[in-house]
Write a structure and sequence with these properties.
The chain contains 10 helices and 8 strands. The chain is elongated, with a radius of gyration of 37 Å. It has 2 domains: about 45-230, Endonuclease I-creI (Roll), CATH 3.10.28; about 235-365, 3-Layer(aba) Sandwich (Rossmann fold), CATH 3.40.50.10610. Helix 2 packs antiparallel against helix 3 (about 110-125), helix 4 (about 155-175) runs antiparallel to helix 5 (about 180-195) and helix 5 (about 180-195) packs antiparallel against helix 6. It has helices at about 1-40, 70-110, 110-125, 155-175, 180-195, 210-230, 240-255, 270-280, 340-355, 360-365; strands spanning about 55-65, 135-140, 145-155, 235-240, 260-265, 285-295, 300-315, 320-330.
């Protein structure tokens, strides 16, 4: 019994000693921390409150409280905050420049896609990560032990990084945006190429290989896009609303069987048709206008007649190079069973045969 009580008292004493030791060590660490931040105190630099600008540089300031993991962890946290502010200051500057560009472009043509594109580019800036940064001063407050650090990066270096990042994003959008027209893709590629070519590789020697590779990829993609569009022919269909939906499949099948592109977008004027065709970098545009008529005869017999007028224009100049008009009809007792698409196909096919004859040999080049 005595031996058990003795052991119990020893455990209590040992626990007390351990607790006392922890208090002493913590106290020593606290004293060491206080001594560390109060030792050789430096006067507060002016950039702590507002005077952070440095000519020719983007600047960011970060601060961190004393860290339980030590001074190195505290310093690293302050640096991360300074880097985040640095990137933000770059984003604000580029945002201001792009906003002016957005306003000018919107005033010129009023196209929403320009604003969308520019906003997307701003997102690229906000996600930018910089590595070419320098420390431009640090200070630790002797009264609070708060550590402050100022980072800077040359504006020309940061602008080069932004231009490179934007060029990569524009190039990638060509593959990621399925709704983009060939003309949009061409504009993105030309803009990406211009951005890369304006990047001074001497400012980013570590990215020289990446710059050259991106430039090569953009040129190859652009060359392929232009090559594919040189002989592109775009078809557009205009028809009265009652039958347009029934004609779409027939017109699309007819055009695509010849390697052409059919656009399911109605256009009411030659100008609108040409503008649509140019978005698809077309060489020629085939504008098919169709109108269906239904006439009732005696005994309930109905005559369905489809009138077709087709015109072919040069997409770039708008010059009319060929036109034809024709009609097809069918007699029926059931108006709802009329196949308007079959009538359209018959007209187009009939003119294909005519153009293969010697009399219309000149026309054959327009419907290969």
């Amino acid at each position: 019994m005595k031996e058990y009580e003795l052991r119990k008292r020893c455990k209590v004493v040992c626990r007390g000693l351990v607790f006392l030791s922890v208090l002493m060590i913590s106290g020593c660490l606290t004293v060491q921390k206080e001594e560390l931040c109060r030792a050789n105190p430096m006067p507060m630099p002016p950039w702590i409150y507002g005077a952070a600008e440095v000519d020719g540089f983007y600047v960011g300031i970060g601060q961190a409280q004393p860290n339980k993991d030590g001074f190195l962890a505290q310093k690293e946290l302050a640096r991360k905050k300074a880097l985040a502010q640095l990137v933000e200051s770059i984003g604000v500057t580029v945002t201001s420049e792009l906003s002016q560009s957005i306003t000018q472009k919107t005033n010129e043509n009023g196209k929403t896609r320009v604003e969308t594109l520019s906003k997307s580019e701003l997102q690229v800036v906000s996600n930018l990560t910089l590595s070419e940064v320098e420390e431009a001063g640090s200070w630790i407050d002797p009264s609070t032990c708060i550590f402050s650090v100022r980072l800077k990066v040359k504006k020309e270096v940061a602008n080069a990084l932004v231009a490179l990042k934007q060029a990569k994003a524009l190039y990638q959008r060509v593959f990621d945006d399925p709704s983009a027209t060939p003309a949009q893709k061409k504009r993105w590629l030309f803009k990406a190429l211009a951005g890369v070519e304006h990047v001074d590789a001497a400012l980013l020697p570590s990215k020289l290989a990446s710059i050259n590779e991106l430039k090569y990829q953009i040129k190859e993609t652009l060359s392929l896009l232009i090559e594919r569009s040189e002989e592109r022919r775009v078809w557009l269909l205009s028809a009265n609303p009652e039958i347009r939906e029934t004609l779409l499949a027939s017109c699309q099948d007819f055009s695509e069987s010849r390697g052409d592109t059919f656009l399911d977008t109605p256009c009411s004027t030659q100008h609108l048709c040409l503008r649509l065709a140019r978005e698809y970098v077309a060489n020629e545009v085939v504008w098919v206008k169709a109108r269906g008529e239904m006439v009732t005869h005696s005994l309930g017999l109905k005559q369905a007649r489809l009138k077709v007028l087709a015109s072919i224009f040069k997409a770039k100049t708008g010059v009319l190079v060929h036109t034809f008009s024709d009609s097809a009809q069918v007699m029926t007792f059931h108006a709802e069973r009329v196949s308007w698409g079959a009538l359209l196909a018959s007209v187009l096919s009939r003119h294909m045969v005519k153009r293969s004859s010697a009399r219309s040999a000149c026309d054959a080049m327009y419907f290969k």
